[in-house]
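A reminder before we start the practical. When you read a complex entry, don't treat the lines as separate problems. The point of joint prediction is that each chain is placed relative to the others, so the output describes one connected object in space. Small molecules and nucleic acid strands, if listed, are placed in the same frame. In the example below there are four entries. Take a minute to note the order of the lines before looking further.
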Amino acid sequence: MLAHHSFTTTAELKGEHHMVPEVSRRQFMERFGITIGALGAGASSLLLPGTAQAQTPAPGPKPKGNIPDKPYKTGHMTFFTGPAAVLGEPSYKGHMLAAEEINAQGGLLGKRKIETLKADEAAGTDANVKELRRMKLSENIDCFTGVISSGNTPALGPVAEELKVLTLFDDGCTDFLFEKAVPNPHYVFRVTNIQSADGIMAALAASTAWPKITKIAHIHPDYSYGRNAFDHFNIAMKKLSGNIEVVSEAWPKLGTTEFTAHITKTISAKPDLLFCSVWGGDYVALYKQALKYDLYKKMKVATTLAFGVAPHALGKDHPEGIVAGVHANYHFLYPAGNKWPLNAQFVKKYYERWKEYPNFEAEGAYTSLYMLKMPVENANHLVGGWPEDDAIIAMLEGLMYESPAGYVYIRPDNHQGYKDAITGFAMQSKDYPFPIHDPKRVITVPIRSITAPPGYAKGEPTTTYKWIDETWPRVS
Amino acid sequence: MDTLLSQILNSLFYASILFLIACGLSLVYGVMRIVNMAHGNLYAFGAYVAAWTVGLVAGRLPDVNPVVLFVLLLAGALAAGAAGAVLEPTLLRPLYKRAEEYQLLMTFGLLLVLEDVMRLLWGPHPLTASVVSDALPSVSLLGLTYPGYNLFVIVIGGVAALALWAFVYRTRFGVMLRATSQDMRMASALGINVKRVYVQAFTIGCLMAGLGGAVVMPISGAVLGMGVDALVLAFVVVVIGGLGSLEGALVGALIVGFVRTLGIMYFAEVELAVLYLIAAIVLFVRPAGLFARA
Amino acid sequence: MTTVLLETRRLVKAFGANRAVDAVDFTVQAGELLALIGSNGAGKTTLVNLISGLLQADAGTIVFEGRDVTRQSIHERIEAGIARSFQLVNLFDQLTVADNVALTIFARQGKTPHLWTVAARDTVVADEAAQVLRQFGLASKAGMPAAGLSQGERKLLDVAVAYALKPKLLFLDEPTSGVSTREKAPIMDVVTSVVRQEHITAVVIEHDMDIVFRYSDRIVAMHQGAILAQGSPDEIRRNEQVTTTLIGSPPPA
Amino acid sequence: MTPAIRPRLLSRLEVGGGLLVAVALLAVPLVAAPFQTITVCYGLVFAIAALGFNLLLGYTGLLSFGHSAYFGVGAYVTAELVKYLGWTSMEAYVVAGIVASALVAALFGIVCVRYTRIFFGILTLALSQVLWSLALKLFWVTGGSDGLRVPTPTLLFGTLAPTKDKMDFLAYHYYYYVLVLFAAAVAVMWLIVHSPFGKALQAIRDNETRAEFVGVQVRKYRWIAFVVSGAFTGLAGTLWVPLNGLTTPDILYWQFSGRIVFFVVLGGFRTFWGPIVGALAYNYLETYAVGFTVYWQLVLGLVLVLLVLTLPQGLAGAVEALSRRLRGAPAVA
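Here is the predicted structure of the whole assembly.
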């Protein structure tokens, strides 16, 4: 068990294996590989549309063998209606951008044009399951992508396995998917970071920026995402700050846009920090109302998804200095500029195509399609002709891909994508009509530091939770 | 102390929005015996139209007097009222001779249609127009910071309640309305133009819903799905207060407003369930609601 | 020697300030065909509603065959043998004429809770229903939905449904209201002949004095919630109080 | 012994049509693609729920807007049996689903049947919402919004285990399993509505007061109908879970009740067969509306609006009226 983590403390050297080791805060940060602002500093101006050097991605190696020119059908399911459409629309746009680019080069392996069937995730789990079956059995899709809700991937994952349809989920990031719903995936992959990273990143950012906080207030949507954020934030904080105290909790229903009573309750508890995982239109309403109560003057604030919506959905009135989460995945200004040209190119192309900036859903959907393209090319290189699904899957397992958000690694054992997690601090900039991450204070953490490693014994509520509890040292 | 005052104001604020939604639902039921399931979406429609109108004007004329923006909120109410004036004669009137199930189903169909029409017109992103709420600065009293706009909404809720009461109990039209609600045939025999009373009642009901949407929009935004949520809340209010009763809508809104705040303050874990539980308890004890008239 | 089948003692029902039935002592003798008369609002229908259980009395008692039924449910009173028809026709419109009657027979036999038998296959009930319909002259309409009958036929079916309960006491609330004058006598002929044939005690609420005098054994006249007079048709015909209050003109010779 | 008093139990049209449909349903897995078979299978499951629902709407005259509750109970009970007891037998699920949904319906029914019309509808809706919020809240029991997984069960008392290819299993073995239960449900419901009890319900629907005055204990019978209706809908919920593989609070939300109402009205609630036709038709309509446009709500809403305006008798009602006109028989009011 101890072999899975990298801490070696005096206590452990003495053989006291059952004690939770203690380290200093600086040791902790160093060993976690947490970086603050290192790559993003001063790069924002490079990112205005038109300044980055956009390149067409180089076509892959010349395809081997005989490739049919029959279109490659993908089914992309995301929210087109309902409150979550604010995340669904960017997801669809990211997908379409990638499809258009690939098709401009003749399609996959230069022959197979990508054709997209779209489906509304808001139709409900029952209808979504039926729709996936219809797409595969009746429309013969070759690949299934999208899905935002963490209630839907556990429903659709097993169905995709049954249908033997190659699936790349862009989101729906619940730990539950690969821990319980599809414990031994073959056809199903997920590209974005796992949900538990959200709460942990917020805890790391908050305790790094404000080491003295002890009293915490919570506002979370009352469903599994909110609870996941609550649990992982708390367990991480317990290790990072020792004596934290939860002074207030509020659990508004998902879809609530009236938070006045939650805000008053939070203020009256006089916390040092508010941790909040409200997202989408709910979050927009929450921050606007909280401003009017001077909440931001009275406490620090950390969020998991403040910048989760498309950037332009937030206003110039958004408060500065708060931890503005991006689902631990991606913000369009990071990695910035020429430090990571892939992102600059992506942002520019996305902006030119859709006249707006991408969010993490857009990047996730865009990357998913490219993460299909690459294994197809690799497999073709090995065996020639159009590769079987199993060949593509073999190439996907263990794939390391350079995405706009950095390196993404697909772990072969659970098919989950891992990349360095990211969060940042909100600031208003004269360059954008909406708030962005303060480029000097972007926080990244190698994902291995905040998620349970392969083979770690499963636990409740998640394996990562148990892993943190058992193996993280406590900051003294 | 400041927390208490603040929470009382919050409860009143929430109650006044609830009242604006629920009174229309109750009025329409009282007069026409129709439970309008599309009511929540007319509330959402009011919010969208108000946000769109304010956004349009504030975008073109950045220095416009804030009073103008407040007046523009009325566009939401008027648009929802106009929608009601069109929908009643065209889609509901042909159904009065039929079993009441059909009226319910018609409005359920409208709920689905309106949901997508709003997405079609305004897209998936929330529309906000916080210029309106920003125009009223937060007020400081007794060491408490309270949003001025919320106070404005409380006043609007109170004024709406008074105006509606005066309208129903103090005007000639109100007399016709009440006569029709008590006995439609008798009213008709007495020479009241029931057709006209129906379309007017429905229009006023929708207008109130639209007004609710318009005044809540500057702080909550106009979001897809807000209508369905509002409908369920309005149901809870009228179930508690008694379907068809304006007093019931008012008392129900106050009860829900205060109980919800209490729930958030002291029983955060059950916030989601607490409203349904109150509704269920009222239904067990007094199934037709506190101000029942059925 | 007559026996009392039903009597009410100081029966009261008020609607607000209006005492619709005001301390009424009302008696029905076994075997008679009694007519209950009075102007609109005299309290006749309220009295029947109280006795049949549709309304609960504010005060007083109702005694049927020596048993106090004042607080019994409708269902219990039907079991005891009290049945009624309605002034405004009250049928099961979407059921067939035969089923309207058959349902009553099933209820009487305690078979309505049976979920596992096919109603139409119960020959005993079907035969009895057919018999009842023949008695009321409705046999040819048996397969038709009740909604499809003429007004006169509907009035007959309404009585037939109540009759199929085989009650000891049958209240008929204006069995000829709403039909043309020409149809009234034939309906009453059918109804009274069935009632007399089966020895059922019946109370008929009726406005048409011709009919009242022609068909009833005894008449009770009500006025403003109280009993004004009672007696044989001849006695009532001669009772000036009745003729002036209720009929408003001397009776035809 | 007037022959008219003994109407044929099934018209020639019904017998002929029924046989034709039975043959067609039996043949589906043999001739149709697996996807079509599974879609029909969903339709049959919903038809069972519709039959149960229509015992209240069509036969007793009560419009429930909370039948999601019983569907959900059937589904969740199954999932809990998997979670806590590790049961895999479909027969056990079916029994437990029927019993549990009947119990919940019995409890809710006590309150609901005291009211009719719109109050009945709102009461049922409110109670189903209570269950919905509990399913979300008691997440350590129900899985909250993630829901609970239900693996493909074994059939016929454990003798028929799911094959490796789940699609084939669902589109063949499970389809026939559902078909048999569907046939049983149809037979039982047909018997119920043609029984003296069924006649009593129709009498209550047509005329509550008069029903009371022929000795029908209206409230008690309504309650029994409510329980039977809930049990049918619960059975449908239980049969639905293996098809979906997961149960989430979605199916307890009031809009799912709206769906049940929708397909019964689509088929026509004035006839016995209408709800079955409606469930099958709605399932296709929704599947393809969701598949072909993101404006599926608009499509469904317009269909409902047009249906109410132009075809209030539903599909089955319209066909019946048409066939009656062709035969020159008089219309039934």
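Discuss with your neighbour: DSSP finds 15 helices and 19 strands in chain A. What might explain this?
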